[in-house]
Amino acid sequence: MPANRVRVLLTTCILVVGCSRSATPTPSPSLAGAPDPVADLASGFDASVRRDLTALRNATNAFHDLAVAQAAGYPTTTPACVADSTLGGMGRHYFDRKIYDDSVDISHPEMLIYAPMPDGKQKLVAVEYVVPFRLRPSTATPPRLFGQNFKPHEQYQYWYLHVWAWEKNSAGLFADWNPAVKCG
């Protein structure tokens, strides 16, 4: 066999054997040690809550852009920012009334909640699920998502559940108010 052909054959064998070895993947430096936002937000809750929170975040991720949320059916007018002088804030509630019914779907929250930022922009921080009393009376069993019972809101005549899916809330993942959200 000519020497040239032996070198090609030998090089091919070395490449095949070298490429066929299984190597332990090295984590990307940008991902190594990066915090898991879902684990942080859902700390203390079981795997089903983390799974549901991941599904919610995947379904609402595009809505960080308010224009995308508005094109999907959330209002184009800017609602008032909801705040309490002692408990903190909620933010601006963009309410998609066409999905205001008795179904509860993790992927389709009735409200997106945005906090005003110092630069004048709005940041997606939470969602709110609602079911009207006319479809599920206040005397009925409350709807449930994330293993949580919805709360009755007598003034607005609906069941509701807040989920702070995009902003850590020191008051809790399902708390109404977030001490870090400021409206003014």
Compact description:
This protein has helices spanning 3-20, 37-41, 47-60, 66-71; strands at residues 81-84, 88-95, 111-116, 122-132, 144-145, 148-149, 151-153, 158-163.
Question: How does this structure look, described?
Answer:
This protein is an alpha+beta fold and 184 residues long. It has a domain at 37-163. It has 4 helices and 8 strands. It has helices at residues 3-20, 37-41, 47-60, 66-71; strands at residues 81-84, 88-95, 111-116, 122-132, 144-145, 148-149, 151-153, 158-163. It has a 6-stranded antiparallel beta sheet with strand order 1-2-3-4-8-7, with no helix packed on it. It has a two-stranded antiparallel sheet with strand order 5-6. A hairpin with a 2-residue loop joins strand 5 and strand 6 (148-149). Mean pLDDT is 84; it is low at 1-31.
Topology:
Blueprint: H1 3-20, H2 37-41, H3 47-60, H4 66-71, E1 81-84, E2 88-95, E3 111-116, E4 122-132, E5 144-145, E6 148-149, E7 151-153, E8 158-163
Antiparallel strand pairs: 1-2, 2-3, 3-4, 4-8, 5-6, 7-8
Which key phrases capture this entry?
about 25% helix, six-stranded antiparallel beta sheet, two-stranded antiparallel ribbon, alpha+beta, about 180 residues, 4 helices, 8 strands, disordered N terminus
Taking all residues together, what is the mean pLDDT?
Answer: 84
Question: Which strand-content bin applies to the residues?
Answer: 15-25%
Low-confidence stretches: 1-31
Structural class: alpha+beta
* Shape, principal axes of CA atoms: globular
DSSP, total strands? 8
Q: Which strand order spans the largest sheet, edge to edge or round the barrel?
A: 1-2-3-4-8-7
- Helix content, binned percent: 10-25%
Gap between N and C termini, in Å? 84 Å
How many helices?
Answer: 4
